[in-house]
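From the pipeline queue, job 12 of 40. The input is one protein chain; the requested action is below.

Action: predict structure.
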Amino acid sequence: MGKVKYIISRIKKMNASNMPVLAKKVSDRSGKPRLFVMADMVWCGLRYRAGFTDYELFNMERANGKQRKTYVTRGINDDLVSRYNDAAYRHIFVNKDEFNEMFGDFLHRDWMKIVSRDSEDYNEAEQLEKLEKLCKGKKEIVAKPRDEMCGKGIEMINPADYSSIRELYDHLQDINAGLIEDSIVQHPQMNLLYPDSINTLRMVTLNNGKAVTLVLAVCRMGNGARVDNFLNGGMMTRINTETGELMYDAVNAMNDVFSHHPVTGTKVVGFRIPMWDRCVETAKKAALVCPQVGYVGWDIAVTPDGPVLVEGNEFPGHCLYQLPPHTPDNYGVLPLFTKAINATE
C-alpha cells in the first residue's frame, strides 16, 4: 500500500480519543507540553507512519529524526505483511489445526483436532477413540482454541481429573477447543529462567524468495503463571541471533525492568539459550515450508531433545522488538529488516 493510501486508511480507523490520553503519558514523563507532544505525534504519523501507540510505546519523543527513521512502525510492519504474506495462505497460520497439519514435522508431539459437534464431518465414535489413545498415560494435555492468539483460551488438562473419556470430551466441546496436544517438556536450562511455563523463543524470519534470514529473536519467560505471554504477566528480552545470548534486562507489560528473574533469581543478560544453532535451523527450515507466507514470527520451545514449533504468526507484532529498555541508543530494528529484504544468500 502506498504511503498516502496508508495514511488515509489509518486516519479513517484511528481512535482519536486515545491520542490525548497517550500524549498526557508522554508529557508527564518527558516534561514536554502536551500540545507539543500531540503535534509531534501527528508529525510522526505522517513522516514515519507511526501510530499514537507506537509513539508512546517506543518513547519516540526522546529520538531525533535520524533515529526515528530506524523504527519499524505500524505502517512499515503492515507493508511487510502485505508484501510478503499472501492473504490466500494466511489462514494456515491462523487456524491451529491447519498449522499443525502443515508443520507436523516440526512439532514432535502428538495432537488431534477436536471436531465441533455441528460440523458436517463430525464422527463422535472416531473422536472418542482418538482422544482415548492420545490421553493414555498422559499426566497433562494442552487444549487450544482453533483461532485465538496471545495465549487466550489455552487450558492445561490432567485427563485423570475426569471420570471418563466421554466426560473429558464433553468438556473440550464446552470450551470450544479446536485441538489438543501433548504438553511440552522444557529443557532443564530453560527451567533455570522460569520452570512453571514454557519459555518460548519468538524467532522472526523473512523469506524474500532468494534467501531466508533470521531477522531477530526474543525470549519470553513466565513470571508467576503457566504462560509466558507478554500481555498475560510474562516478560521478554532480545536474543543475540549470532550467539543465542540474552542481550538486555527483561521487561514486562508494565514497563518494569528486571536484571534477574524475580522468581528464580537467574541473571537475564548473558543467559544462553540451549541448542541455539538448532533453534535457528528449525526456524529457517520452517520458513521454507510455505513460502507464500514469507514474514513469520515463529514461537519455538526448547526441549531436552531439541527445539519444537509451538506456532507461527503470519502477522508478527512489531512492538516487542523495540521497547525502550532494549533500544538504549534510541535506534530501532528497521536496518535488520532492510538487510533481510536485500539478502541473496
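Job complete. The two ends are 27 Å apart (CA to CA).
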